[in-house]
Predict the structure.
Amino acid sequence: MKFGVLQFPGSCDERDAQLACARVPGAEAVLLWHGDRDLQDVDAIVVPGGFSYGDYLRVGAIARFSPVMESVIAFANDGGLVLGICNGFQVLCEAHLLPGALLPNTELRFTCRQVDLEVIQHDTPFTNLCATGDILSIPAKHQTGRYVAPDLPLSQVVLRYVSGNNFNGSQDDIAGVRNAAGNVFGLMPHPEHAVDPLTGSVDGLRIFESMAARVPV
Amino acid sequence: MKYIGRVPRVRVLIRPKEGILDPQGKAVARALPALGFPAVDNVHVGRLVELDVEDVSQVEAMCERLLANTLIEDYEVALVSPDGEHQSQTAGPDAPRR
């Protein structure tokens, strides 16, 4: 299993994402530079957190047109697994690989805190090692995480903020969504920061392990 | 359409779509009465993108593809005269030449 983690100017969580991927037994992870179109035969893509291209104009708006994203869009349309975390989620929404958009938090504050997420769907390539109803404890840190998606089918909601955890004001407490086909998934909280007991939770690892469980060896 | 001479200047105004919560607008609306401006309502905070562009007819496509996210934002294109005044709310073929 080979993960590819994108790296934009302004990314800041790509190394943590790479380390998280490498903790999956039998997996390796390479960084993919934003200016390269070659995805190096990876089995899955992670679009990491940060502030790609400074988040100028609108979060994710510029990164979405980078050369590597052309390849990622083709990869996703071909059924490849794509995980977007935080800024990566914003980029995937701007690229129309996921429905909806991310707006400034209702409180207009950057917030960094641990959040509890309820697994709404376990039969996805990203949550198949969870059970529906499981609670994942994962850190979130952002100022632009209010998810809005008019007419989103409920069938695409994968994770919800547990009551009292929706600090950004996301519609219907939605924390993680997938595309209609199910091979693209995005969330604002950071599973790559929850892979070691030292930092309080290893729940995030299940997302990466679920992806590996879906990729044929 | 191509302009001869000075390249037209265009302003694109982008604001949150109606019905989308605009906490920045709300914060400003709350702040103004505290400064002694009581009768303020319907405040929205958006973005201004100003650009010089030869072919003004391309601006709408620019808005749709990059400048605005039409899922959450409305945009308005205005041609600007050399003295900085808005000349027109549209940037179509009827926009005045100079």
